[in-house]
Amino acid sequence: MKQLLPVSTVVAAHAAAPAHAHGRTSEHTLRAACLHTAIVAIRSLHAEIMLFPKPGLVSPVDNGSHADMDVALFMRSLFSLRHYFVRMAQAGARDTAFAQLKVLGMQAEQRMLVATQGVNTHRGAIFALGMLCAAVGYCHAHARPLSADSIRRTLMEQWGDALIMHSMPSAMSLPSNGTRVARLYAVGGAREEGAKGFPAVFEIGLPQILKSLRRDATPAMAQIDALFVLMAYMTDTNTYHRAGADGAQLVKLSAQAFIAQGGTAAPAWQATAGACHRLFVSKHLSPGGAADMLAASWFVFQISASGARVTEQD
Ligand SMILES: CC(C)(COP(=O)(O)OP(=O)(O)OC[C@H]1O[C@@H](n2cnc3c(N)ncnc32)[C@H](O[C@H]2O[C@H](COP(=O)(O)OP(=O)(O)OP(=O)(O)O)[C@@H](O)[C@H]2O)[C@@H]1O)[C@@H](O)C(=O)NCCC(=O)NCCS
Ligand SMILES: Nc1ncnc2[nH]cnc12
């Protein structure tokens, strides 16, 4: 029989009988919570890809600045990741060391690359959402609150030191577009984001989602606002990789102008966002890192929202 349990019930159950000392029922409950966490991660990535207008990015309307990606490719990539996020939540619940989480992440990258025939659709998301799933899994197992603060604190307490080490790739690390532009332009990127506990998510994307929803924006409008604020204030190595420091600056200034006009609260916001999309496509610009951080922000919002529910197989 299927049962729907509010997350608060799951947490209360663990408070009464901690999962690390669990019997059969709490083991089932924890498994259901990890599955729920993974479903929210997949749904967040799905919501991001379906969103439009997103300047320079792939959406159901067009492929933005990408010749080698479309929505169908992102769907195949997403399908290849369905087990990964469950494994990361479960590994987090078991206090797994970063070295083992990294192995899971690298296996997921390989599966993604097989599914996309070598195109990098979700590399940033595998890292960021994977680590966040691990932190949420830990919170479930240890009856910690599922608030944004608690998720971030857990991430840093459990894996903060290792994430700092990971932000300093060794001579043995494979070169990447991100490390190349980080060196070339002396900027941070996905690795620095991780080392700092994803400030783009917790200090930029999530606060904007909450702010937009408070003024009665729809979920899609709140996500558009968050994407633009992320484009305006984070360092996205993909924009540097695509168009250098000038291109990255153009992304920031365009996004700041959209926000200054009121974001999606402005009557003509769709026309402004559409013009920004055409400009980015003409310059080959794609804020893919901001897109990943948007999905991660939406994930944290969904997990921390009080109405979240899990499905448990009785
Ligand atoms: C920590 C890693 C993510 C690796 O990071 P690194 O910077 O070394 O490597 P990249 O390969 O460049 O991947 C970074 C991805 O993260 C996204 N991103 C960029 N800036 C930020 C940021 N400030 N914060 C968070 N995330 C950010 C970005 O994702 C988007 O870019 C994708 C496309 O990029 P690219 O492949 O460069 O391709 P194109 O633009 O199409 O250009 P060409 O192909 O034509 O050249 C797009 O889809 C977005 O998703 C970057 O992808 C992590 O992977 C890692 O640790 N790697 C080492 C191995 C490992 O340990 N793995 C397991 C970790 S759990
Ligand atoms: N919608 C999108 N388009 C291009 N790159 C992305 N990376 C993550 N989401 C993306």
From TrEMBL:
Catalytic activity entry: 3'-dephospho-CoA + ATP = 2'-(5''-triphospho-alpha-D-ribosyl)-3'-dephospho-CoA + adenine
EC number: 2.4.2.52
InterPro entries: CitG, TriPribosyl-deP-CoA_syn
Pfam families registered for this protein in UniProt: CitG
Broad enzyme group: transferase
Source organism superkingdom: Bacteria
A GO molecular function held by the record: triphosphoribosyl-dephospho-CoA synthase activity
Keywords noted in UniProt: ATP-binding, Glycosyltransferase, Nucleotide-binding, Transferase
Full protein name: triphosphoribosyl-dephospho-CoA synthase
Biological source species: Herminiimonas aquatilis
Gene: mdcB
